[in-house]
Design a protein that fits this description.
The protein has 421 residues and is of the alpha/beta class. 33% of the residues lie in helices and 21% in strands. The chain has 15 helices and 15 strands. It has helices at 19-26, 43-57, 74-87, 147-157, 179-183, 203-206, 208-220, 222-228, 251-254, 300-310, 329-337, 351-361, 373-381, 403-411, 413-420; strands at residues 32-37, 61-67, 94-98, 101-105, 111-116, 132-139, 165-170, 191-196, 244-246, 260-265, 273-281, 286-295, 320-324, 342-344, 364-367. Strands 3-4-5-2-6-7-1-8 form an eight-stranded mixed β-sheet, with helices on one face. Helix 2 (43-57) crosses helix 3, helix 7 packs across helix 8 and helix 12 (351-361) crosses helix 15. The longest helix is centred in the N-terminal third of the chain and has 15 residues, at 43-57.
Length: 421
């Protein structure tokens, strides 16, 4: 970034973890960036710098920075954005006031306004000297009331103008069921979700004490370390799967898949028909879930055509399995008539427990968040049941909201059945 007085290298201000994100924003490839992660990832610093850079680039729009509680603005987003302006060497080009709380670019009159949603009425009375609000930053996204509140705010702020850009940043709450953890799994055109940790931050920026504290927590309370420093929603102790990695699977990894495992759980209504495509890396004990389909009130012939269009079992150059629930042998036969080599899952006493324990015991279940949002939601929300009287965790696996879990279990059954025996 270059100002009139001095030249600043952006690489000296932005952690390497965010270079590709910045490049995509710079090229106009994304209209919304969601920054999630743990302590020390510098995501808020990057958010502040990107907001300033986009304000400078788009001279006819203004920016708004939001927190849930207005009392936290001055020591958080207000201070962070002024730091970014100073770090870019542009203090002389901006002025700041606390009452009203705003930052103004002198030569253009562009403003950055600050609001807390505890007084949401102020958003409706925003007065701008010209132009429109084009850039909005939601800091600590999970502290807001939910998706509806965020949507209402965006509808109020983004009105008119050719350009709009939104930043949302937060540390994932501990519970996978939290609305923000679930919301971020929903794919949306123009949205980029980025996860960062302190491990990609230059160590000189963090200091020795930060690193020592992180290492101490890793040794003494590894689950707390995963949540606080790695930004993982590790759950409250009742999550069935503690080995999930929910983010896009890079194309270079998908190209290395040797055997494709396909699974189907039959359904009609209200239960959905669920399909998943998987691949298993035995050396790394990692299961990749790269594809899904979900349908209701859809015939076997129709779902068979969907799978064939997906290329399931159509590639003769590598091994593929298609395994479905054996509770409906006629449905398996329907698929074979349609040209799909569908096998029925072998069931027996204890097979459910063996399959589930195998999945739980893997080093990692990597679910592509863009291609498999329904699967990601099922796996991340799947929890043990509680006794309503004493709160104790009950044995067994709940038979509800687990259709993709079952499809994955069928897809991998030839592997875990062999190990279970």
């Amino acid at each position: 970034m270059t100002s009139e007085k001095k030249s600043i290298k952006l690489s000296a201000l932005v952690s390497p973890a965010f270079w590709k994100v910045h490049q995509q924003v710079k090229e106009g490839a994304v209209q919304e960036v969601v920054l999630k992660g743990g302590r020390g990832s510098t995501k808020s610093s990057y958010a502040a710098i990107e907001l300033v850079l986009q304000l400078i680039k788009h001279k006819n729009c203004h920016g708004v920075a939001l927190r849930k509680v207005g009392g936290t603005l001055r020591t958080s987003v207000f201070a962070q954005i002024w730091w970014a302006i100073s770090a870019l060497g542009m203090e002389s080009e901006f002025k700041r006031t606390v009452s009203p709380m705003e930052i103004t670019r002198k030569n253009t009159g562009q403003k950055i306004l600050f609001f807390g949603l505890d007084d949401a009425g102020k958003l409706k009375s925003i007065k701008l000297p010209f132009g429109y609000v084009g850039i909005v930053w939601f800091e600590e996204l999970d502290q807001f009331a939910g998706e509806e509140e965020i949507r209402n705010v965006e509808q109020s702020l983004f009105r008119g103008g050719k350009y709009s850009f939104c930043i949302k940043s937060f540390n994932p709450p501990i519970s996978p069921r939290n609305w923000a953890n679930q919301w971020v799994l929903q794919p949306k055109k123009g949205r980029l979700v980025h996860h960062s940790t302190y491990k990609t931050t230059p160590t000189v920026w963090l200091g020795e004490k930060f690193l020592q504290d992180a290492e101490h927590l890793l040794q003494t309370a590894p689950e707390k370390y995963k949540h606080e420093y790695l930004g993982q929603a590790v759950g409250t102790g009742t999550s069935v799967f503690g080995n999930l990695r929910i983010e896009p699977i890079p194309q270079e990894i998908r190209q290395q898949f040797e055997r494709l495992l396909h699974g189907v759980d039959w359904g009609w209504y209200p239960d959905p028909w669920a399909y998943n495509g998987c691949s298993y890396d035995s050396a790394r004990r990692t299961l990749y879930i790269y594809d899904e389909l979900t349908r209701v009130r859809t015939t076997n012939q129709q779902t068979a055509q969907l799978l064939k269009q997906r290329g399931v079992c159509q590639d003769k150059s590598r091994e593929e399995w298609l395994v479905a629930d054996s509770a409906e042998p006629k449905s398996c036969g329907d698929y074979r008539v349609e040209g799909l080599p569908c096998q029925k899952a072998e069931k027996g006493p204890g097979s459910l427990v063996v399959g589930m324990k195998w999945l739980q015991g893997l080093e990692c279940i990597w679910i592509d968040s863009q291609q498999c949002p329904d699967t990601a939601k099922e796996f991340s929300q799947y929890e043990y049941r509680h006794d309503h009287q004493d709160g104790q965790v009950l044995e067994g696996y709940p038979d509800c909201n687990n259709h993709h879990i079952d499809a994955v279990r069928y897809a991998t059954s030839k592997i875990w059945k062999r190990r279970g025996q």
